């Protein structure tokens, strides 16, 4: 049997993925540069962009972050991934993407803009989980905010334990 770490590394190499700021690995696969840009309140954006996004045993967490755009997530391969969504009213939604549809795992997940989102690789036999994201209006760093532990726990003290697990320890 091939060692699990080798397989995750092979997926990273084969798909040409790079480390992502949130944790995990990604590569942009599409941007709608054959169409007019969309004028948004924050400036012009692609109509849509898309990435591969991979979590591995070595980098198993996509840290809490906030997006203005809507994001459609599509599960492809590997172990299941748990999503934690904190809505503006403070309610927490926990969802699992994976290929066990009969157990209720999701192949698609729609996360509207305006929500704090984190993801975490669940234990499994593969040591990685691969999804794609389609973002509209297209992804721009100006529309994204990384979760600050202090600020998020102040805003949502009821989720302190989860936030501490899924944010970086800032100094
Ligand atoms: N998250 C969703 N889409 C993107 C993207 O195109 N680039 C980066 N860095 N993060 C993303």
In short:
The protein is mainly beta. 15% of the residues lie in helices and 43% in strands.
Can you offer a commentary on this structure?
It is built from 3 helices and 13 strands. It has helices at 4-15, 149-155, 160-165; strands spanning 18-19, 25-31, 38-40, 43-45, 49-56, 61-67, 70-78, 81-86, 92-97, 108-111, 115-121, 128-136, 144-146. The strands form 3 sheets. It has a 6-stranded antiparallel beta sheet with strand order 1-2-5-12-7-10. It is globular. It has a single domain (2-165), classed as Jelly Rolls (Sandwich), CATH 2.60.120.10. By secondary structure, the chain is mainly β. A hairpin with a 2-residue loop joins strand 3 and strand 4.
Summary tags:
single chain, 171 residues, mainly beta, Jelly Rolls, five-stranded antiparallel β-sheet, 13 strands, binds guanine
CATH topology term: Jelly Rolls
For the termini, the CA-CA separation is 42 Å
Provide the β-strand percentage band: 35-45%
Outline type: globular
Radius of gyration: 16 Å
Mean pLDDT: 96
